[in-house]
Amino acid sequence: MASDTSMIDGTTAVLPSRPRAADQRGVTVWATLRSFRIDIFGAIGLVLLVVFWWGLTFVVPRSSLPSPLNVFRRIADDFVVADMLSYYGLPETGLMGSMAYTAANVLIAVVVGGLIGTVLGLFAARVPVARAISDPILNTVGTIPILVMAPFFLIWFGTGRWSAVLLVTVYVLVILYLFAQRAAENLDPVYESSARTFGAGTGDILRDILIPGTLPQVLGGIRIALAGAWGLEAIAELLGAQQGIGKIIEVLAGSLDIEGIFAALLVLGIVAVIADWIAGALVRYVTRWSVSARVGTT
Amino acid sequence: MTDSSQGKPNDITFTDVTRTFVRGDGQEVTAVDGVSAHIREGEFVCLVGPSGCGKTTLLQMVSGLLPTSGGAITVGAKQVTGPGPDRGVVFQKDSVFPWFRVIDNVEYGMKRRGVPAAERRDIANRYLELVSLSHVARAWPKELSGGMLKRVAIATVFANGSDVLLLDEPFAALDYVTKHQLHDVLLDLWRSTDAPRRTILFVTHDVDESLLLADRIIVIRDGRLVDDIAIDATRPRDVDTLTRPDMMTVKHKLLAHLGLEHGSRRSAAS
Ligand SMILES: Nc1ncnc2c1ncn2[C@@H]1O[C@H](COP(=O)(O)OP(=O)(O)O)[C@@H](O)[C@H]1O
Ligand SMILES: [Mg+2]
Q: pTM for this one?
């Protein structure tokens, strides 16, 4: 079943524990080095992409594709305050401040939508009546392209922060509902039975079995939802907002400022990649007990 | 059932126990059909029978995970109405929680019963040592082999101090050598306890396993108790014990119950 290198069978011998501890440390160091090496490959990939982009600028006219160097310079110039944008009445023109606004919205939506979706999903998996009610609603919402809801949210909640947050929250909620429900259904009932023979009550089972047992899939769902949330939040801002990366893109598009749009998109992309990287590391640590976690680390 | 020992903390009484299931196609199946028996305190009983005869169903009703459709099961003085820590279960499937380290698994039952942290760690360490797993106390279950996981499950129910142990084909998926090692582990743990011993109900379809382990073998067929055989052999038992004429007689009888013996041999043996 599991990898043979890490398996020490108690049937053969009782090994002294000291060398084993050292072994484990060696394994950890090796795993760290390996993931570091993979990060290097990732960095090489990024460099290649930038080189490719730079090469393209010799073929494509500058008005359609700005050069990487100019975009980087633009990011540096507009990082705190963007003079170009001060005429548009934005409360925040800097890339950093706009990105912080967008990131905060995504964070709120992922946390709130993730929590509600997970709770509903687990509940639906264990209480048939709850499922009979929530399944049709959430599955219907899930089949509607989420952006179709954006105009309604704008009409109901205005162009402030909460229309965009709500849109992303619904998106995350629907994904996590499905992930949590499926995870709870796939959890082997033997664990709950076993816990009950130890005298565990409903609350104990929720805390000791259902939540840890579904955590790998739930966190996997959070990662997928997070990846999609960035783009959705940006588009929601583009459609109607006071600030944020999406708003900046909308304003710059009005003045055909391709370079500025690229700068904003690049900042959004970099933040999204870093967020996914952090989330991935966190998930791997929290679910390091899981059989698939080992496969996932390579 | 009207035994004078009734009411002791760890004897089991089955009174006309029945369990029916309604299948998906609407058909009713009687999985356990009017079983009556008394298991004395400290007895090691094997439940033997062909696949689908109702062994798991019977065991699950003793554990309280499954209600009876008729009749009653009493453990000690109490009628079974639900699961409880007085009855420890080792499931056929691996039931060690993958998200807890080995030591935390062994402590889990004690934790639920409110045993103080330091005390339960001591007890858990002691039982891990008894099943030769001290070196993996801090490991995750995924790092253990199938045989090691069974050792953890056994250590867990023993550490929890259950009076009655219910084991449902615990070693069926293990290789020959590991299985025999675990027989010794189980018997040593059971015999090492100061009297009174724990009562053990051990489900198996392996005839030799039942002959090596049991004080008494109860045979189930089609949900009914069809035979109840006392095994009169001292422990430890080995291959030679199994070839003794009286043991061979029992073995032939069991094989016949499983439908593996022809009528002529069966009558010749008994
Ligand atoms: N949940 C269930 N629903 C319907 N039938 C069941 C269920 N559990 C067991 N049975 C039926 O009861 C009978 C006994 O099953 P079981 O106790 O698992 O047998 P064994 O453990 O001896 O192999 C079988 O015919 C099985 O199909
Ligand atoms: Mg069975």
A: 0.86
